[in-house]
Amino acid sequence: xxxxxxxxxxxxxxxxxxxxxxxxxxxxxxxxxxxxxxxxxxxxxxxxxxxxxxxxxxxxxxxxxxxxxxxxxxxxxxxxxxxxxxxxxxxxxxxxxxxxxxxxxxxxxxxxxxxxxxxxxxxxxxxxxxxxxxxxxxxxxxxxxxxxxxxxxxxxxxxxxxxxxxxxxxxxxxxxxxxxxxxxxxxxxxxxxxxxxxxxxxxxxxxxxxxxxxxxx
Length: 217
What we know:
Elements: H1 10-30, H2 37-50, E1 56-64, E2 86-96, E3 99-100, E4 103-109, H3 113-135, H4 140-153, E5 157-158, E6 166-167, E7 193-200, E8 207-213
Antiparallel strand pairs: 1-2, 2-3, 2-4, 5-7, 6-7, 7-8
Helix pairs in contact: 1-2, 3-4
């Protein structure tokens, strides 16, 4: 479940993470109101290509507005465009130097307090779950049960089954394990698992997303 390939190197894994986060920010900075999600993905992939990315372990995923409650497997239908006052998230899975990166976060245009609260609290849920992961030897399943509890305490709903965490390694991690972190009966090891958090408003079609590799520091 936590195996890696013969090419795996910790420093390359951490470097891939750093470059992936750099790419997420560059993509967000490159998006403009009026773009559709499909156009935004094309922009994102052009930026990734300019950074030397030639391979992805998962496709680029960007959602705007009401589609922020949707998950990775949901189709891209309609012409939802980024607005001047909007919420969106970016989720990318590039491969750098043979190692998988995976990072995602939410951005807000404008001053809508609900959107800003969603963006903030997706990270809050992530941080609290990570703190519990650091302090207790909980299973992946127990960590996601705790995530649901934290999201509820903040007034949001956790948005399963869309996000349940997963492995990373040198490419491809699925040679070793393709299941979710939520299904992991053991305590997830550092530098092996991505904790994904997606929350949504209980009444409105608004959501937020945050994910990162679980690290001790």
